[in-house]
Write a structure and sequence with these properties.
Shape: globular
Largest sheet: 5 strands, mixed
Order of helices and strands: HEEHHHEHEHEHH
Strand content: 15-25%
Distance between the termini: 31 Å
Oligomer: single chain
Helix content: 40-55%
Strand order of the largest sheet: 2-1-3-4-5
Radius of gyration: 14 Å
Number of strands: 5
Structural class: alpha/beta
Length: 153
Amino acid sequence: MDAGKSYLMDPYLAAAIAEAAKGRAEGGIPIGSVLVHEGRIIGRGHNRRVQQGSVVLHGEMDALENAGRQPASVYRECTLYTTLSPCPMCTGAILLYGIPKVVIGENRTFLGDEDLLRSRGVEVEVLQSDTCIAMMTQFIAAECELWNEDIGE
């Protein structure tokens, strides 16, 4: 996985990648996310639109849902790790809950609303993970109709 990159040892990106792989193994879209508070993963998830027949269960939304109900003060101290740049819906949730930092595995296959996050004071770090890029590139090539459905095209 991404030899020589500084985030290789980052357990949170690794957890998000594991979630993405889990989603793909279930027949879904390989996007994963984890929500981290004070060095501990409090929510993890993956895109489950296909598996659950859901219109909203993107990886970030699933991680937030799985974190359970938290006080606003907790969200304001979290970092959200996601394997792919957040779409407008997920960006809105990040802003709604006041999450101050988002670490993105890659934005080459899809560029979400990173500029909106930055304009609202969210720290955005894009890693361009070779693993994340390969996962999405392979998925899009194999499942272009499903991908277009997921991103609304």
